[in-house]
Amino acid sequence: SVVESEMPINLIVQGAGTLEIIGSEVAGVDVIAKETSTVVLDGSTIDGAITTSWDSMATIEIYDTELVQAPILSGFAVGHFTNTSVPSIVVEDSAVALIYRWIHVTVFDGAGNPLPSATATARFLINGTYWSSATSDSAGIARVSSLGTIITASGSTFVGNYKINVTYVYDSVA
Asked: Which residues touch 15 (CB under 8 Å, ≥6 apart)?
């Protein structure tokens, strides 16, 4: 879908409200997240501002999306950004931005064919601590989420190098 406005539109999400924008183009619309609201953007293009209020505890989840303007996280908001094109991220107050990347793992069987239903597990390289896992699809591809950077008002911290292990369990019927 496409939402476009020549006049300014503010979408204010507040309380325990949730706004989901999936597979859409949004132009001329600003999103303001307040209180404990949740904003989810997935596979979209947004040219308006995305902001949280100074006292916000909102959650912003953005996946595979293009943002034209830098989002501004304030208050105690937490932003999760996965595979997102964005000019920058502004973090103020006690807000936190978590930058994730997809690790694409392609799994093949012994004959070189794609192997669905295999589990790819990511562990931190340094200490082996479990991070996340994903199951391969019919093409044998598993998309494993990996946290790369944490951004706060005082700076950014690189988080991770990962070790990936893939397992496949076959239950045969006797």
From this structure: 34, 35, 36, 37
CA–CA distance, 161 with 159 (Å, rounded to integer): 7
What does the chain come to in residues?
174
- Residue holding tokens 């979209």? 44
User: pTM score, two decimals?
Assistant: 0.86
Give per-residue pLDDT as tens, 12-67: 999 999 999 999 999 889 999 999 999 999 999 999 999 999 999 999 999 999 99
CA distances (Å), 106 to each of 88, 114, 141, in order?
Answer: 31, 7, 4
Pairing state of beta strands 90-91 and 72-73?
A: parallel
CA distance 59 to 79: 6
In single-letter form, the type of residue at position 11 comes to: L
pLDDT digits (tens, 9 = 90+) for 57-77: 999 999 999 999 999 999 999
Dist CA 94 CA 79 (whole Å): 12
Convert 137-158 to b/e letters by CB count within 10 Å (16 or more is b): eeebebbbbbbbbbbeeeeeee
> Which is nearest to 76 in space by CA: 55, 91, 51?
55
User: Do 132 and 89 contact (CB within 8 A), yes or no?
Assistant: no
